[in-house]
Amino acid sequence: MSRLRPVVAIDGPTASGKSTVARAVAIRLGFRHIDTGAMYRSVALAAARRGVDLRDAAALTALAASLAIEFHPAPGGARGGERIVVDGEDVAEAVRAPEVSTAASIVSAVPGVRAALVARQQALGAAGGIVMEGRDIGTVVFPNAEVKVFLEAGLEARTRRRHDELTARGVEVDLDEVRRQEAERDARDVTRAHSPLRPADDAVILDTTLLTSEQVVAAIIQLVRERTDVV
Ligand code: DC
Q1: Distance (Å) from CA 229 to ligand 1 centroid
Q2: Per-residue DSSP letters for 116-151?
Q3: Which atom of ligand 1 is nearest to the CA of 141?
């Protein structure tokens, strides 16, 4: 595959700081930022609204293949940089609800759903100039990405981050409940048969537990500098 601009793949578990970091890296590079988790969340949200049973793999696959999911540039938007629009509706807020997180994790284990969304992600990033975040970007979606980063953070740090994020959005949740949900989602993402969460062999692993997001962004920009000629 030849592309003029690089693909920066950022993978990692839930609440590892991927979104904040991926968005900031994209802004610094002048690249697009695609949050692939929001795509799995969109399928889960649409399934709930249309009454599709989460055990019905065929119906979920058909939904993932047909749903109109678009990313629109929106500087300063809620997720910063890109708004996610599904069937004409801005769902940036709706897809962050805790029940959608759990449903997205279930939906993302369905092979047909993954195949449909991976194809869309590859099309979105084909020309490069993109920072794509998720779980399988460096392993499956863009195994030849010029820059691959895998973010890690301890469960406590991730629980605190998710709790802060939800509290900031006015969602009241118990810290223990957040920890339980994060651990459960991690376990499902890591153990699923199809494209489980794991670092690519050639990914750079960054433990963000003790780092600020600015430090993580700086480390990734440094990597981009070393591996490409864009900055
Ligand atoms: O990153 P997130 O929390 O928004 O992701 C929501 C769910 O989607 C999560 O349980 C894992 C799944 N996911 C995935 O399987 N592959 C991706 N590339 C992105 C997300």
Answers
A1: 30
A2: HHHHHHHHHHTT--EEEEESSIIIII-TT-SEEEEE
A3: 18
Contact 131, 31 (CB under 8 A): yes
State the pTM of this model.
0.91
**Residue 108 included in any domain:** yes
Tally of domains within the chain: 1
For residue 140, tell me if it sits in a domain: yes
Report the atom number in ligand 1 closest to the C-alpha of 121: 18
Smallest CA separation from ligand 1 atom 6, residue: 37
**Ligand 1 atom 9: residue of nearest CA:** 105
Pocket residues for ligand 1 (CB within 6 Å)? Answer: 14, 36-37, 40-41, 104-105, 108, 134-136, 185, 189
Dist. CA 41–CA 102, nearest whole Å: 9
Over residues 84-134, the pLDDT tens digits come to 999 999 999 899 888 998 899 999 999 999 999 999 999 999 999 999 999
Look at residue 104 and tell me if it is in a domain: yes
Cα distances (angstroms) measured from residue 186 to each of 131, 159, 183, 206: 23, 12, 5, 18
Q: Is residue 91 part of a domain?
A: yes
Ligand 1: nearest atom to the Cα of 197:
15
Domain limits at 90?
7-225
The CATH number covering residue 25 comes to 3.40.50.300
Pick the closest to residue 151 from 92, 210, 100, 94 (CA basis): 210
Weakly modelled stretches of the chain, pLDDT under 70:
1-2, 75-81
